[in-house]
Protein: Alanine dehydrogenase
Amino acid sequence: MIIGIPKEIKNNESRVGMTPAGVMELVHNGHTVHVQSGAGAGSGFSDDDYKKVGAHILDTIGQVYTLSEMIVKVKEPIREEYDMVQKGQVVFTYFHFASSQRLTQAMIDSRAVCIAYETVEDSDGTLPLLTPMSEVAGRMAIQQGAKYLEKPKKGRGVLLGGVPGVPPGRVLVLGAGTVGIQAAKMAAGLGAHVTMLDINMKRLRYVNDVMPSHVVTEYSNEYNIRKHIRTHDLIVGGVLLKGARAPKLITRDMLRCMRPGTVIVDVAVDQGGCVETTRPTTHENPEYIVDDVVHYCVANMPGAVPYTSTLALTNVTLPYVLNLANKGWEAACAADASLKKGLNIVDGQVVYSEISEAFDLSARVLV
Structure:
């Protein structure tokens, strides 16, 4: 198969879809790999690094799309790429369709085969291709939240860990999934007091077992959310509904209950956000303020640490890329139930029910 690795062109996105190590494996399996010149530079990989393992370096993104049967990316195609995607071409990347009707319609119109990293699902319900980026984003949420709590950033002026004689900051984590666990771990490590809310009691019991005593758990409901947002300095949104829009757990009217300078880091922004006032931002302009509450809602948070993120991503995507390349998408998905759940749009038809429900479309059922 001919596989293309284009340079990411989303704002301040420095990750790349495949490391040179991953390209070497593909070439050793008899596949042709086209890498756009400069695609790996942001992650610390030169064109020579790719050439040495057998990749062909192409000058433009258009050439990569035109000459490739499968595109392996990091982020969803943006508007400039829509017309480059070809009928029957496999596009394997993070899509998060439920948050963008424009993207969904563009991929329907392209009649490509869109396989989303974030909906590949193992039999135990875990999301193996989303997990590493959720781990990165969860940890980064605390780093960024701590920074934006500083007064020059319009935050409350709170040091999360406190100092002797001064209590630590308070962090509220919505969701006890991968993002929430990693955020709580980082916040607890800094010495902050952490409250974690979730509706899954098994997850809360797990948190209670593995986290230190200054991480406390409560059942998530509107009453408890309204109670805690009054007293917490940093709020991390880590809620996920597989392939669907995130629920709005914090509404606009709740912002008036928060203290001025409270910081919200909504990691769920890729799925529309779990805060009503969330809107996607970029690393170039990452934050905005509503009702004196600082919002950090960067839609590609792991892109700020591209070396770590690219290695972590290739570690988990490469086996699936090899499977798709060796067998073709139809045979690969027929043989692998986890990969089959990654199919979102095929030949102009939505095949993932959560996307159809988000935009009132009909979904074709794959048998």
Observations:
- The chain has twelve helices and 15 strands.
- The first strand starts at residue 2 and ends at 5.
- The domain at 2-120+305-359 is CATH 3.40.50.720 (Rossmann fold).
